[in-house]
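Lab notebook, bench 4. Still working through the backlog of constructs that have no structural model yet. Next entry is a single chain of 195 residues. Request: give me the structure tokens for it.
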Amino acid sequence: MVGMRLVGIMSSPDCQAHTTKTSLYSPDSVDIIDHKKSRYPFCIVWTPIPLLTWLFPFIGHMGIATSEGIIRDFAGPYFVSENDMAFGKPTKYWKLDPDLASGGIQAWNSAIRDASEEYSHRMHNLFCDNCHSHVAMALNLMVYKGSSSWNMVKLCCLMLIFGKYVSIWGFLKTWMPFLVCVCVVIILWLAIPMA
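Model written out:
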């Protein structure tokens, strides 16, 4: 509905001069996010990593999307994928404001392109140089929120706080395996008599 209103406003010659990019790309306008097509413009996206997320549900795979919603993620050694995340479709996303990137939308896309180019020449390291580091580099290059100190720990914490689940299925895909593991441990602990 909102998207239809914006199109109507933009097509009117009298109102075109009054329309700004801020009205089109507001961080609160979720009408441009398309979960079915996995399009998340100006978002950081996250998906669980089998086994690892089952034990530590706050650890997962991260990517960043361009202004068109195309997801770029450091998927493995010397490889940055485009719109095909290494561990499946996103289950969480964190909408960012492109106006907070130094240089706006153009700088946003340029930083993602440059970070992806850099990481396409890097070896993947689970602990030191990974998908979170790729996203952090993009945010550092665009000087998002005036900061060039983004890192994987900061992003992990902020995604945990500000990330929104794409659906109830996204929530279950993230937390159900962990809860099953906890229940199995509790059952085994209660079932095995202490000597």
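Notes after review: The longest helix spans residues 168-191. Confidence is low (pLDDT under 50) at residues 1-31. Flag for follow-up if needed.
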